[in-house]
Design a protein that fits this description.
By secondary structure, the protein is mainly beta. It has one domain. The chain contains one helix and ten strands. It has a four-stranded mixed beta sheet, with no helix packed on it. A hairpin with a 2-residue loop joins strand 2 and strand 3. The two termini are 50 Å apart.
């Protein structure tokens, strides 16, 4: 009898331990993001065989400062910049910011933004950023994670 009681107790402990080991950990709270405007950064835009260097204003409007033919070596005088509409192997979904509204569409292989016919235009304030969400190609800034409030003890 003693042996069977020990086996039963061991089996019970294994079952309890096994269940605890395979249960899912508590879900982490969703990461929230806030928009941080930056109209001082230099950006590049591909357009019509040219690389245009300039800045975006608060509405996403591009102001060109320099223009270089694509495929030509860059001179040392170019400011460091991020390419906004770089070529990709396939067209990709994106939004374009137009005076506080987001127009859905896609960035084509040549870098052109083409609006989606009949696409739903949303207010920028209603956009929910997530790393996997379609980007806003002409965003004058970026999204940063918001730290959750500290837990009170």
């Amino acid at each position: 009898m003693r042996r069977s009681a020990c086996v039963a107790a061991s089996a019970l402990l294994l079952a309890i331990g096994g269940a605890a080991a395979t249960s899912d950990p508590p879900a982490a709270p969703p990461v929230r993001y806030k928009f941080v405007e930056n109209t001082d950064r230099w950006v590049g835009v591909r357009r019509g065989g040219w690389l245009l260097i300039g800045k975006l204003d608060k509405d996403g409007e591009f102001t060109q400062e320099q223009r270089i033919p694509e495929g030509k070596p860059w001179s040392r005088g170019l400011p460091a910049h991020g390419l906004l509409n770089g070529a990709g192997p396939e067209p990709r979904k994106a939004y374009e910011l137009r005076h506080g509204a987001l127009v859905p569409g896609e960035i084509r292989k040549d870098g052109a933004f083409v609006p989606e016919v009949g696409g739903k235009i949303i207010a920028f304030a209603d956009y929910q950023y997530a790393p996997e969400a379609p980007p806003i190609w002409n965003l004058p800034g970026g999204f940063q994670p918001v730290e959750p409030p500290a837990e009170k003890k």
